[in-house]
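Case study: Pantothenate kinase 1.
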Amino acid sequence: MDSVVSGANFLLQNVPGAAFTHMKGKRNSIDISPDNMFPYLLVNIGSGVSILKVTGNRKFERVTGTHIGGGTMFGLAKLLTGCKSYDEFLQLSQKGDNFVLDLVVKDICGELVCQKQGLSTSTLASSFGKVITSMKKLADYKPEDLASALLSAFTYNIAQISFLVASLLGLRRVFFGGSYIRGHKSTMDNISYALNFWSESQMQASFLQHEGYLGALGALMSYGDPRNENLNPEESQEENSHEAAAPSDVTSADEHNDGNIFPYLLVNIGSGVSMIEVIGKGKFERIIGSHLGGGTILGLARLLTGCSSYEEFLELSRSGDNLAVDLTVGDIYGERGYPKIGLPASTTAASFGKVSSGKLSEYKAEDLAAALLNSFTYNIGQIAYFVANLSGLKRIFFRGAYVCGHEKTMDKISRSLKYWSKGEVQTTFLCHEGFLGTLGAFWSYENMGIDGLESQEVIREVLLGAPHTGQFPSSPLTHEQDNGGNTAAEAEVERLRHDNTVLKSELERLQRENAELKAKLVKSGEAATM
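Here is what the predicted structure looks like once written out:
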């Protein structure tokens, strides 16, 4: 990484036109003044992705990274398309249509809701999301379409994480480098479009002419240089603190009351992922989302493992070993890892980065399932942390049908949040996470006059009384409790029936009045004509 930074600085300071933008197929050179170059964010896309804050010559800090990078794209491309080289994968992607497999907002909400919410109908909602409702098998899809969907999924994700990191650091200049860009037009267009979209045109993606050779240039320049102070001890110590123990996330039931539950971040994991800041009853805002959600996991799982349901996929993942296909830092740098920047050998460097063959039969379905779950749950946890950090939120609730109370999913999300936040952000799950939409629809009847239901307080306590830890109460209701509950329920049903009768009577009265008014209008119209 020392060499990568040195190479980037050399190009930007000494080679005219070394940097350029690429949007909608158009390439434009940009002039970088050496006097006004720092600080900037360098996103280096290799097998994984490293994101570096560069503040001067030989001065930088690796602030974060992601295991979903070029190695992930290429590994999955080998398994899904059978391509033998990354360049072949890029050529395939140019001829494909990702919307054959990807779910867009219009597919979920329809055009009317999109207009109401101010969403573009073509916005990507869930990469590979259409696969989950299709009867097609892997052989039924064109390699070109699969390649296009893979490229869109992961380039957009890299751009989104880069935007969040740049926002947290207060940086507006973002350079993308690494051998997996390859000067490929669609890759650069995707990154540029996504960064422009997420930043609302406040950030611009910049690329480097010789992006695949930054490390070589830096190594050449450092030849014979005895200095080795590229990363100062304070920065190294700060990076290592990611591994520090974090306080327990357990929260007592008494903490969850109307007075102190707000504000919080609600992460809804459906086909895609929505992240919503909730500041009070009925007061919320959707901040951001991700197209890599449950639909992506299940869509890829169906193609790679042939599983027919999400439950079957989760069961497969339990007995699998993701390290059979995932590349670790130790695989790249050796058993000591990369201690200079605080990366232990066991850290995942690139999901699916070990895949060397395009034959699915050479890999266990269980290992592929474990790698998929590992990859996307960690990614969701990382993005959720960045969003919570930007919004100043310390509490995150995760819910959605794709969480499903699955202990391994919750454990991986919790580990991800604990790692990235150094234990400062609380990770909480809800016992009935798959039914919040149903409950919300039920409570919306308050607006129609059905208010003050006795069960409201009970349901609120059940949902927010305690975080879900995988332990469910096992004591059954006694006969007396059961009878008492039945009596209260019967009384409530009777009250609702009475209210329903009153409402019907009122509706009939209004209909009669409406008919009388119409008759009067007709008579007055006839009189005016005469």
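For the exam, be able to explain this: The radius of gyration is 28 Å.
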